[in-house]
Amino acid sequence: MSEAAIVTEDLRRSFGPIKAVDGVDLAAPAGTVLGLLGPNGAGKTTIVRILTTLLTPDGGSARVAGFDVVRDAAALREVIGLAGQYAAVDENLTGRENLDLVGRLYHLGRDEARRRADEMLERFDLTDAANRTVKTYSGGMRRRLDLGASLVGRPQVLFLDEPTTGLDPRSRFSLWDVIRELVGDGTTLLLTTQYLEEADRLADHIAVIDGGRVIAEGTTDQLKSRVGGDLLAVRVVDRARVAEVAEAVADLGSGAPQVVAEAGEVSLPVREGTAILAEVVRRLDAAGLDISDLALRRPTLDDVFLALTGHVAEVTGEDGDGPEPPDRGRAVRPAKLRSSA
Amino acid sequence: MSTVANRPLPRRRLWWTVSDAAAVTKRNLYRYLRVPPLLLFSTIQPIMFVLLFTYVFGGAIQVPGVDNYIDYLMAGILAQTVIFGSTQTGVGLAEDMTRGMVDRFRSLPMARSAVLAGRTMSDTARNLFVVCLMLVVGTLVGFRFHAGVAAAFGAVALALAFGLAFSWISAFIGLSVRDVESAQAAGFVWVFPLVFASSAFVPVESMPGWLQTFADINPVTVTVDALRALTLGGPVTRPLLESLAWITGILLVFVPLAVNRYRRAAG
């Protein structure tokens, strides 16, 4: 394998005046997991749609498994699998009929399509529900079926667009297990997610996307080291005085303090974490600033995102890559990212 | 990466195009098995029209030269039924678009035309079922074919072909508006003037002059006249050729338009 399984060079795509993808370079070696991490509207889905031939790029180039997304689109479709943001399964068919249909459309032949359908049902723990219409399935079952459908054609490269959005935690964990197993089989995977934890758990290499650009990339550890050491998090009782806290501790850090005003929280990158804890307490006490929480922790990807973009990472109930919902401005330790700038 | 070598030969590609369309047709038809009320209500409406027109208007509408209004009516009802039925093509496609099915299909190595071909074929199959049922009900309330068995089959075939042509118009509309409610509304508005300002239920001569001008060139009038000739008897050739010309024309315009819409359907 001389070439990476997924390569994009200066990929661009606009919708009217909006540059959804604005010069993206990506590379994923075969058999690895590339995570695209970013808030709603960052351009993740547009990238996936280009790589799966659903959209054509305005500029730049992209190759998947050696096939150009524009020139070799037909051949490319034979070696990819896609599970989009919404489970694309037919409610009026049974689980088995859905998988069989997809197998037929991959041109597997009647017997092979049937065999693959059975294999997928087994693998995704749907054998008992195989002959029920999908209408009766839970959200988690639909996602599993959808994932099964994306694997029927034994894809070399698999695209999962926010595979666990909208799932309850238990379904999410079980889906993570399945995805990890897949990757063990040598499939190359591109995964988009708003969940930091998801990218952290599943991806070998993460590209952080914001405003249609890759704003940072690397392994989880590399990204975390961008923040520089540990993080000291101070939460003040009187939120109005959060700026005073930042000022009081600023010179103790290895970088500038980040303020999350809505939460009354200041986070400060520090090198000698434990050594300065006492000094922080002393200064805040002297300034008469009451604190409700003081913690020293390893940085999460939230912190990385914050350090990279200056955006607050925030919990959101929104799915998809649609336009940004209005800022609601709360939440401290997010599970999902959304830019609020 | 040896897949390039496996690219289909032209003959295999043709076979796959047919097989893909068949797979999609089958998938669409399952819907009627799984949601019986859907078939029930899409059947009840045309049957209701047969009965209402026969018993409510049948006594009042006098068509010169026709003794039995239902014999006159049946051709009109056939055309109306297949047209109303074909408006569902756009609704079904809009549904597939909004539910992500079209994205899945477009990411598969299947024939590009199969989703549209499968949808219009399954709607034609549904039309066939409804037409047969209507003919049974029509026969029960007094309708008879007067022009022989071959003409009767011809009438059914012509009605289905006409419905198929309208299915492609509907497909184009459904892919253009992209959402189910709009497809439902947009699919219906334009067929009403076509169906009612035609020879479907009353002779064109009974309409005001300006409307006659429209009704005369209306493809529904032409097709209903052909269907009437095939069911009642009378000169067939001219209306039949005119109707076939309309069907061909509609397909020539709307198949490429709809396929183009489908290819560029970026949700």
Please give a structural write-up.
The complex is a heterodimer of chains A (341) and B (267). Chain A is α/β, with parallel strands linked by helices. Chain A is 33% helix and 25% strand. Chain A folds into two domains: 6-220, Rossmann fold, CATH 3.40.50; 229-298, Alpha-Beta Plaits, CATH 3.30.70. Chain A contains eleven helices and 14 strands. The two termini of chain A are 42 Å apart. In chain A, 49% of the residues are buried. By secondary structure, chain B is mainly α. Chain B has one domain. Chain B contains eleven helices and no strands. Chain B has helices spanning 10-34, 36-57, 69-98, 101-107, 114-140, 149-177, 180-189, 191-196, 209-217, 219-232, 237-263. Classes of the chains: A alpha/beta (341), B mainly alpha (267). At the A-B interface, helix 2 and helix 3 of A face helix 1 and helix 4 of B.
Keywords:
heterodimer; A: 341 residues; alpha/beta; Rossmann fold; Alpha-Beta Plaits; six-stranded mixed sheet; disordered C terminus; B: 267 residues; mainly alpha; disordered N terminus
In short:
The complex is a heterodimer of chains A (341) and B (267). With 341 residues, chain A is of the alpha/beta class.
Break the fold down into its secondary structure elements and pairings.
The complex is a heterodimer of chains A (341) and B (267).
Chain A: E1 6-15, E2 18-28, E3 33-37, H1 44-51, E4 59-64, E5 67-68, H2 73-77, E6 80-83, H3 95-105, H4 110-123, H5 139-151, E7 157-161, H6 169-184, E8 188-193, H7 196-202, E9 205-210, E10 213-218, H8 220-227, E11 230-236, H9 242-249, E12 258-260, E13 265-270, H10 273-286, E14 291-297, H11 301-309
Parallel strand pairs in A: 3-8, 3-9, 6-7, 7-8
Antiparallel strand pairs in A: 1-2, 1-4, 4-5, 9-10, 11-13, 11-14, 12-13
Helix pairs in contact in A: 3-4, 3-5, 4-5, 8-11
Chain B: H1 10-34, H2 36-57, H3 69-98, H4 101-107, H5 114-140, H6 149-177, H7 180-189, H8 191-196, H9 209-217, H10 219-232, H11 237-263
